[in-house]
UniProtKB/TrEMBL annotation:
<keyword id="KW-0732">Signal</keyword>
<keyword id="KW-0175">Coiled coil</keyword>
<feature type="signal peptide">
    <location>
        <begin position="1"/>
        <end position="25"/>
    </location>
</feature>
<dbReference type="InterPro" id="IPR023614">
    <property type="entry name" value="Porin_dom_sf"/>
</dbReference>
<dbReference type="Pfam" id="PF07396">
    <property type="entry name" value="Porin_O_P"/>
</dbReference>
<dbReference type="InterPro" id="IPR010870">
    <property type="entry name" value="Porin_O/P"/>
</dbReference>
<protein>
    <submittedName>
        <fullName>Phosphate-selective porin OprO and OprP</fullName>
    </submittedName>
</protein>
<feature type="coiled-coil region">
    <location>
        <begin position="35"/>
        <end position="62"/>
    </location>
</feature>
Amino acid sequence: MTKSKLLASVAFSVAGALMASQAHAQSAGGNDTEIALLKQQLRLMEQKLEKLEKQTAANTSAAAKANAKADAKADPKVTVASANAAYPVKGTIAPSDVVVTMPNNRPTICTADNQNCIAITSRVHFDVGGYDYHPNSASTVPQRLDSGENVRRARIGVIGKFLEDWNYALIYDFGGASDGFGGTAGVNGAAVGFLPGGAVSGIENAYLSYTGIKPFGGKLAVEGGIMDLPYTLDEASSSNDIPFMERAASGITATNIAAGDFRSTIGTRWYTDTFWAGAYVTGPATGAIHSASSVNPNGTTEQYGTFARVAGQVVSGKDYSLHIGGDAEWLIQPPHNLIANTQTLTLSDRPEVRIDPTTLVSTGAIADVSGAQVYSAEVAGTYGPLFFQGEYFWYNIDRTAFAPLSSLRFQGGYAEAAWVLTGETRLYNPASASYGGIVPANPFSLSGGGWGAWEIAGRYSTIDLNDQVGTAVGVAGGRQTIYTLALNWYANRNVRLMLDFLHGDIAKQLSPTNFTDTGSKFNALAMRTQVAF
């Protein structure tokens, strides 16, 4: 029975009682006792009515709470709007525990607070090309260079962070199929391992970096493991972003001494938007044989060295910037062959295209090396779509490990410039003190009408590995000069096609005391298909 019906029934009963009482009073002459009795009954009925109303309200509230609990169990996203609500109300849906995104088309999974992330990264550089090679004499080595193809890089791995400030990477490189000579080393006919330079695939990155310290308004990174070290401006720039298929030979020769890719290291760097400073202690590269024994006479002790770099933007604006810097590298302990009791170091590089793995200039194994130093200067800048960069290197090799020989000194450098025909510019990356790549303003699309970005570039590169020529203790490694022209098409931020034409001139003699011409000249045309994210 509802409250309104109950009140009506009570009112009707009271009215009837009053009417009966009135009739009775008239007949009995107005008996006051009966009237008082009726009033008492009315008060009792009012009290019962109040109790009944309270009980009804309590039952309604209990039913509402029971319904709310049942709904909450059925759907955990349902919430009660307020404590006094009679019925459950759906509130805001809680955010997911993870967020999946594709920055730069890189699959990335992060927690909702972006404190923890893991992403898949990959790059493939597939090269094809050919040489027009002309040795200067029958004494020239090699007599030919082979055209063909090379999977220069084929990397895949994961990068990420946890608790915001801990960064890590694990990347394996399956490439370099034509970057070295194959074969195995053996003892008494039994193979014991690959020859150095033969199997060049391996762990390219496996490091941990902490960036939670921010002194003096900058960011400090403390890191260690196997890394691509930011030594030299060219090496600090990603291979996905440089205007040419290969870096200049002078820079590669320097980084191979105690830095470069696949290098074990521990160190730190501090940087702001305009300044960068870093120093690292380095060890051997991955894959280096460093276990000398009677069954492995090619083994050596591990090498170690260090380097420091200071660089930054001295001028920057909306459409222009200027970068300068300086670098120093020290090979403190060269590899030591415990069986042969030798310490050697070789300076060399391929002619800035790696279809054929042959080096055209090389010092050979310099004996009795006790240490080495490399000093260099760097400059780069942008002015709208114009980009320019250059570095120069001075190499010093100490030869006092087992015999007091004079030091050797070599030098080399490069200068390059690039112009983006479609107007894009290269942005500065403060974390590595280098310039990034081109991101097309209008990615290629037949339906959308975009044609990507187009860039032309040129470079002059030289390295001189001759010293004390004419003496028995000199080195005649040769002098290499290469001119490179490049045309690059950036279809989008992940796909790039590159076309390089190289003209090289190698001036070299047979030995420090034999002036027989063993030089050469070559032209090379090579193309790269690049996919990276």
